[in-house]
Design brief:
The chain is α/β, with parallel strands linked by helices. It has two domains: 242 residues, Aminopeptidase, CATH 3.40.630.10; 67 residues, RNA polymerase II/Efflux pump adaptor protein, barrel-sandwich hybrid domain (OB fold (Dihydrolipoamide Acetyltransferase, E2P)), CATH 2.40.50. The strands form two sheets. Strands 1, 2, 3, 4, 5, 6, 7, 8, 9, 10, 11, 13, 16 and 18 form a 14-stranded mixed beta sheet that branches. A four-stranded antiparallel beta sheet has the order 15-14-12-17, with no helix packed on it. The longest helix has 14 residues. The termini are far apart.
């Protein structure tokens, strides 16, 4: 797969991407840390040397979400550079600080990278990372897709288009489900992109510290299709079946701490009052029965059994 391996600084990435041709595998030096060492990350550039159109595929903002990095690793091998028009930037591990700790956030500052894309002045290492990635990579693209996974549970693959904006772009992923939540003030990457007119989508797929391979092909096919739809990849896009578009999802939370035993499966349709599962507190005589509060389909199901009060058990749409 590797035609070239090169170490560059992130300040060089934009000019390198506009002049590179073929597939380039890079080690990008991002920022010097307090001990004098440098934070770096792997980046792939696949390009015909044209600046536009440009698409960024990013994953690993949270260090304990592994489906996205593996999907982008596989995608990098699959894309034929001779079929690319414009520039594709693939960043499978946007937050190496957290990934090396196998944690959602890095312990050195406890800051969520996907909450740093606002206008505040950066102070902590993760905030500086977010500002650098935004200024030098994310804000310079025409299209951006951000891949995530659930934490202690698992999601069916779905895409998100906050406020329903750029819904036609998101539909090109050909997913069965599209979430159109209201934008937040949490400084998410997709919200920041929308503010400056970058067509963007967020993907949730599988669970955090696991590879849910049964979903990988669905996501890979979707990414390839949307690249064809915007002209970055040669070929005609496929029009999929009409997705189920929803604004709200109903979250069922644990009524107490203990161990959760599910009586349902991911993707199952439930009726109001159906037995979802049981939470059993340690040394308790019996468990607490959890019932579905409404009809719907299970988009998310808790996988890790040890839970605390108010932890999410299922999401129903």
């Amino acid at each position: 797969m590797v035609e070239q391996f090169r170490n560059i600084s992130i300040q060089e990435l934009d000019s390198f991407a506009t002049s590179a041709s073929g597939r380039q595998i890079l080690r990008v030096k991002v920022r010097q840390l307090g001990d004098g060492s440098y934070l770096s990350m792997p980046v792939a550039i696949i390009s015909d040397g044209s600046h536009s159109p440009r698409m960024v595929l990013v994953s690993g903002q949270h260090g304990n979400e592994w489906n996205g990095p593996w999907i982008l690793h596989q995608l990098t091998e699959m894309v034929n550079p001779d079929q690319v028009h414009g520039t594709l930037v693939i960043m499978p591990l946007a937050n190496p600080l957290a990934f090396n700790e196998r944690s959602r956030v890095a312990a050195l500052d406890g800051i969520d990278l996907n909450r740093t894309y606002g206008t505040g002045h950066p102070r902590k290492p993760t905030e500086h990372l977010g500002r650098i990635l935004w200024d030098l990579v994310f804000s310079k693209t025409d299209y951006l897709i951000d891949l995530h996974s659930a934490g202690p549970g698992v999601y069916l693959p779905f895409a998100a288009a906050p406020n329903g904006k750029y819904l036609d772009f998101v539909r090109k992923l050909n997913f069965d489900f599209i979430h159109t939540p209201k934008s937040t003030k949490a400084d998410f990457l997709v919200d920041a992109c929308q503010r400056i007119g970058i067509q963007t989508a967020l993907i949730e797929v599988g669970g955090g510290r696991a590879l849910d391979s049964e979903y990988h092909q669905k996501v890979t096919d979707g990414l390839l299709n949307v690249m064809k739809a915007v002209g970055i990849l040669a070929g005609d896009p496929i029009k999929g079946t009409e997705p189920y578009v929803f604004e709200h999802k109903y979250i069922v939370s644990a009524p107490c701490a203990g161990f959760f035993k599910p009586f349902v499966k991911l993707g199952q349709k439930v009726r109001k009052g159906d037995h979802i599962g049981t939470v059993t507190s340690l040394l308790a005589d019996s468990g607490t029965r959890i019932q579905a509060p409404r009809d719907g389909l299970l988009l998310y199901l808790r996988r890790e059994p040890a839970i605390e009060e108010q932890d999410s058990i299922v999401h129903i749409i």
